[in-house]
């Protein structure tokens, strides 16, 4: 009587035998004399630590390294107090600024402070009266509420002025736009007497030391991953990959953002050639990234691979091609250090492999 379990066992055995026969079929037993007569020569794979790819790009400022001082209200720039390239410190005046709305905001702040002062006086008076039992608790609670509201109004008006980036000079009380952080003046977009709209950018302050690299890696190169090392040797700069995104122009290239831990002599805006040091650690399938001569690559049953030297001859090993040029090829495969691959006579080995099927 037929039992379903026997079918399962038979299927497993058949699969095992097929895999074994396939592995045997991809191995060729050859003597040293046969290898020599076929013109087969071998070359070792390149160690992963030696894999480097080039990328071109630009030196850019970090997004947080730039700061814009804008007009808080529609108004007029009375005087400009700084010039392009001038270093400034946080809170340093950049220009004097006049605006009806600004003076209205200043008046509202002064009024709020006056009301808060009156509320504090009333609070002190009613506390004493309440303690002496002269006024009821409800009036004491109402006085407390008015004092709290007055203090909150002052904080709101002060926050508005702080967000506007305005201070009033001690002598004349002239309103001044100030820098929100230290840096260099990169742009001045106003002249004395210029009338500007609210939120119009007037000054551009940058930190010239906060740099990163914006690199482009072509489609024929393996894409780096986060944390891999980046180097600009000619400028003494080093860093690491912080992000990789595909380019949306259909070229299959990727953009790489690299943060610098050593700036060297790099300057913002210049174009550079960088070197990416790719890790060769095995991936989830156990395949590591290595370099092989381009002449070692061939195709068998539509899959790329190389012929690996063994004790008894050669064996065909499938690989995944990541990049190829005239000088070298980068592949992923089970090719540990010391592996030798055929770089000549590959066609003859492929013919023998086909004849053995």
From TrEMBL:
Coiled coil: none annotated. GO terms for biological process: copper ion export; plasma membrane copper ion transport. InterPro entries: MFP_Cation_Efflux. SUPFAM superfamilies: HlyD-like secretion proteins (SSF111369). GO terms for cellular component: outer membrane-bounded periplasmic space. Keywords: Signal, Transport. One of its GO terms (molecular function) is transition metal ion binding. It comes from the Bacteria. Residues 1-25 form the signal peptide. This is Efflux transporter periplasmic adaptor subunit. It comes from Cupriavidus necator (Alcaligenes eutrophus). The lineage of its organism: Bacteria, Pseudomonadati, Pseudomonadota, Betaproteobacteria, Burkholderiales.
């Amino acid at each position: 009587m037929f039992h379903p379990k026997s079918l399962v066992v038979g299927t497993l055995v058949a699969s095992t035998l097929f895999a074994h026969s396939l592995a045997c079929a991809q191995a060729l037993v050859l003597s040293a004399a046969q290898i020599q007569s076929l013109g087969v020569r071998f070359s070792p794979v390149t160690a992963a630590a030696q894999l480097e790819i080039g990328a071109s790009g630009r030196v850019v400022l970090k997004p947080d390294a730039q700061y814009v001082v804008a007009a808080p209200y529609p108004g007029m720039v009375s005087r400009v107090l700084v010039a392009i390239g001038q270093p400034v410190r946080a809170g340093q005046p950049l220009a004097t600024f006049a605006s009806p709305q600004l003076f209205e905001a200043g008046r509202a702040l002064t009024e709020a402070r006056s009301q808060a002062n009156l509320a504090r006086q009333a609070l002190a008076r009613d506390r004493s009266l309440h303690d002496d039992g002269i006024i009821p608790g409800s009036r004491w609670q109402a006085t407390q509420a008015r004092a709290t509201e007055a203090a909150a109004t002052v904080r709101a008006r002060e926050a508005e002025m702080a967000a506007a980036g305005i201070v009033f000079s001690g002598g004349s009380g002239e309103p001044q736009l100030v820098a929100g952080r230290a840096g260099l003046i990169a742009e001045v977009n106003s002249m004395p007497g210029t009338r500007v709209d609210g939120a119009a950018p007037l000054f551009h302050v940058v930190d010239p030391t906060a740099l990163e690299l914006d690199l482009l890696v072509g489609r024929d190169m393996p894409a780096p991953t986060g944390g891999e090392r980046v180097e600009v040797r000619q400028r003494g700069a080093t860093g690491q990959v912080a992000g990789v995104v595909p380019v949306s122009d259909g070229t299959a290239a990727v953009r790489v953002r690299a943060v610098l831990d050593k700036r060297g002599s790099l300057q913002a805006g210049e174009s550079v050639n960088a070197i990416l040091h790719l890790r060769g650690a095995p991936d989830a399938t156990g395949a590591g990234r290595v370099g092989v001569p381009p002449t070692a690559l061939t195709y068998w049953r539509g899959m790329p691979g190389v012929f690996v030297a063994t004790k008894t001859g050669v064996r065909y090993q499938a690989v995944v091609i990541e990049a190829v040029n005239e000088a070298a090829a980068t592949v992923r495969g089970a090719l540990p250090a010391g592996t030798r691959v055929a770089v000549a006579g590959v066609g003859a080995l492929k013919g023998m492999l086909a004849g053995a099927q």
